[in-house]
Write a structure and sequence with these properties.
Layout: H1 6-18, H2 21-36, H3 42-75, H4 93-132, H5 138-156, H6 158-174, H7 199-239, H8 242-246, H9 254-289, H10 295-299, H11 307-329, H12 331-339
C-alpha cells in the first residue's frame, strides 16, 4: 500500500496555493511597492558625518587661531610704552606717588649729601690755608660757590631733568609706532574648502592653533610684564634721582652719578627698542611665509597634500613669536650695550 508522507502533502498544498489567481495578482503589487521604498545611501551618511566632524574641528581650531592673533596683537600694543612720562600706567596716580616721594623725602637727602660735599671742600681749603699760611685763592672760592649753585639746581630740578631725558628717547620710540596688521586679524570659515580637508589635517589645524595660542599667551604676558617693569623702573629712578645727582660732586662718587644717568638713558632707550621690535614683527612674519591674515594659508593645514609646506610656514610664525619674546626680555641689555654701559 502506497501511503503519502506528511511532507509531500505540505508541498502539494503550497503549489496549489501559488497557482491560484489571487496569489498571482498580488505579485505585481508587491514588486511595485518595493520600487516605491527609498534606498538608503549608507555612503552618503558617512560622508555627511565626516564633513560635520571636520567642520566642528575647524571651528575649534579657528577659535585657537583667532585667540593667537588677538594675543599677539595685544602683545604688540605700544600704548603702555610710548606716551607721556606722567601717564605710563594710563593715569598719573603712580607718577604722583613718585613725585611726592621725590619732593618730601629724597630732595632733603640729596641736599644733605650736597652739604657734606661743601663741608669736605671747606676742610680741604682750610688745610691748604694751614699748610701755606696764606688766604685761599679767589678761584677756590668761586669754584665752591659755582659748584654749590650747580648741584643745588640739579637736585631741585632733577625730576624735570629726568623727564626731559625720557622725552627725547620717547620721540625715538614714537617714530616706530605704526598700524599693527595683527590686531584685527581673524579667520573666516568662508575661506575654508571642506572638499579638500581631511580629519587628520583638521586635527593638525587644532594642534597648531592651540600651540600658537599658548605662544601668543606667553608673548602677551612677557610684553606686559616687561612694559610694566620698565615703567616702575623709570618712576623709581626719577623719584630717587637727587641722590645720584648729588654724588656727582665728589671725585670718589662721580662715576656713580654718571652710571645712574647712563642706566636711566638705557631704560628709556629700551622702550624704543621694544617698540621697534613690535613694529617690525608683522613684517618679519610676512617675509617668512606670507601674511598671517590670509586665512587660506592657515586653512591649508587641513588640506591633503598641502599641510607639509604650511606647517613650515606656521612654525616660522611661532619662531618669530619666540623671537619677539626674547627681544622684549633682552631689550634692556641691548640698550645698555648700545650706550656702552
Amino acid at each position: 500500500m502506497n501511503e503519502k508522507t506528511p511532507k509531500s502533502n505540505l508541498m502539494k498544498r503550497i503549489r496549489n496555493f501559488m497557482l491560484k489567481p489571487k496569489f498571482m495578482a498580488v505579485i505585481p503589487l508587491a514588486l511595485t511597492g518595493s520600487m516605491l521604498i527609498p534606498n538608503v545611501a549608507y555612503a552618503g551618511i558617512f560622508d555627511d558625518l565626516s564633513n560635520w566632524v571636520e567642520g566642528f574641528m575647524v571651528d575649534i581650531g579657528i577659535t585657537f587661531w583667532n585667540a593667537y592673533f588677538g594675543l599677539i596683537g595685544s602683545a604688540s600694543d605700544t600704548s603702555t610704552i610710548v606716551g607721556s612720562f606722567t601717564t605710563l600706567f594710563g593715569n598719573d596716580s603712580v607718577w604722583n606717588l613718585a613725585k611726592t616721594a621725590h619732593s618730601t623725602v629724597v630732595i632733603p637727602l640729596g641736599e644733605s649729601i650736597l652739604a657734606l660735599f661743601m663741608l669736605v671742600q671747606l676742610v680741604k681749603i682750610s688745610q691748604r690755608i694751614d699748610a701755606t699760611a696764606t688766604l685761599p685763592a679767589v678761584k677756590d672760592i668761586v669754584f665752591l660757590a659755582v659748584a654749590y649753585v650747580l648741584f643745588h639746581w640739579l637736585i631741585i630740578n632733577s625730576l624735570d631733568i629726568i623727564s626731559a631725558i625720557y622725552s627725547e628717547f620717547n620721540k625715538i620710540a614714537s617714530s616706530f609706532v605704526g598700524e599693527n596688521s595683527l590686531v584685527s586679524s581673524a579667520l573666516d570659515k568662508a575661506q575654508w574648502n571642506a572638499d579638500q580637508a581631511s580629519i587628520g589635517g583638521c586635527a593638525l589645524f587644532i594642534a597648531m592653533g592651540f600651540f600658537s595660542m599658548f605662544v601668543g599667551f606667553i608673548a602677551y604676558v612677557v610684553s606686559l610684564v616687561v612694559a610694566l617693569a620698565r615703567g616702575i623702573q623709570l618712576y623709581a629712578m626719577a623719584a630717587f634721582s637727587p641722590i645720584p645727582l648729588s654724588l656727582l660732586g665728589f671725585d670718589e662718587t662721580r662715576q656713580m652719578g654718571i652710571g645712574f644717568l647712563k642706566n636711566f638713558c638705557a631704560a628709556a632707550l629700551a622702550g624704543a627698542i621694544m617698540v621697534f621690535l613690535m613694529a617690525a614683527y608683522p613684517f618679519i612674519v610676512t617675509s617668512i611665509g606670507g601674511s598671517p591674515t590670509a586665512g587660506n594659508t592657515i586653512f591649508a593645514l587641513t588640506y591633503e597634500g598641502e599641510f607639509i609646506d604650511t606647517v613650515g610656514i606656521v612654525l616660522g610664525w611661532i619662531a618669530t613669536s619666540f623671537m619677539l619674546i626674547i627681544g622684549l626680555v633682552k631689550s634692556g641689555a641691548w640698550a645698555r650695550e648700545i650706550l656702552g654701559s
